[in-house]
Amino acid sequence: MDNNQLKSKLLCLVAMFVLAIVSVGNANAQFTIGIKVAGNASNYMQLTNLKFGIEGGVFMRLGDRFFFQPEVNYSFKRSSVNDQSSEYSSNSILKQHFIAVPILLGYHFINKENFKFRLTLGPRFDFKVRDNVEGSDWHSNVVQWGGQIGVGIDVWRFAFDFNYCIAADNFRNNKQGTSQTNQMNVFILSLGFKFIK
C-alpha cells in the first residue's frame, strides 16, 4: 500500500467519524451494543459459483434516526479462484481469515421501540490474518478494502441484516514476482442480539 492510498483511507475514516459525530451529536442519542453471527457467500469477479463462509463479532450503534455503527468481526471467506495467468488453476479454492471492520452510517426508516427498519452504508476494511490457495503459490493482500451497503430490521433485541460488500484485493505470486487486482463480492446474512437496546 503506497502513501497516497494510505492517506485516502485515513481521510475516509476521518470523514466518517466527523459525519457520525454530527449525526449523533444530540444529548439524547441512543446507545446499542450487541453480538452477531453471520453466514457469507463470496467470490472474485463474478456473482455466480459463490462459496460459503462464516463470521461473527460485536457491533455498536450510537444515534437515533441517524446512527453510527462500527463493528469488529472475525470473517472466514471461501472463494473460487478466477486468475488471469496460465499457472493459476481455475479449480483452486481460496480460504481467507480476516478481522473485518465495517464503519457504517445508517438511517432508521421505521424507529419504534421494539421494531426498526434501517439502511446502512460505509467503508469496510478487512485485515488479513491468514490465507491459503490450494495448489497455488499466490497470496492475497494484507488489507482488503471496499464498501458495504445493507438493510436490516430489529425485533425486540434481535437484529437481522442483509449486506452486500464489494472490495479490491491484490494477489501476488512470490515465485514469479507478478501480481493482479481482483474484485471481491460478498453477501452477508446475519443475526444479532442487543445486550443494550
Give a written overview of the molecule.
The structure is a single chain. Helix content is 11%, strand content 66%. By secondary structure, the protein is mostly beta strands. The chain has a single domain, classed as Porin, CATH 2.40.160. The protein has an eight-stranded antiparallel barrel. A hairpin with a 6-residue loop joins β1 and β2. The longest helix has 21 residues. The model has no long low-confidence stretch (mean pLDDT 81).
Please write out the topology.
Blueprint: H1 3-23, E1 31-44, E2 51-63, E3 66-80, E4 93-111, E5 115-133, E6 138-140, E7 143-155, E8 158-173, E9 178-196
Antiparallel strand pairs: 1-2, 1-9, 2-3, 3-4, 4-5, 5-7, 6-8, 7-8, 8-9
Structural descriptors:
single chain, 197 residues, mainly beta, Porin, eight-stranded antiparallel barrel, 11% helix, elongated
How do you describe this structure in short?
With 197 residues, the protein is mainly beta. It has one helix at residues 3-23, and strands at 31-44, 51-63, 66-80, 93-111, 115-133, 138-140, 143-155, 158-173, 178-196. An 8-stranded antiparallel beta barrel has the order 1-2-3-4-5-7-8-9.
Which fold name fills CATH's third level, the topology?
A: Porin
Strand content: over 45%
Distance between the termini: 39 Å
Count every helix, treating DSSP H or I runs of 4 or more residues as helices. 1
- Which CATH architecture? Beta Barrel
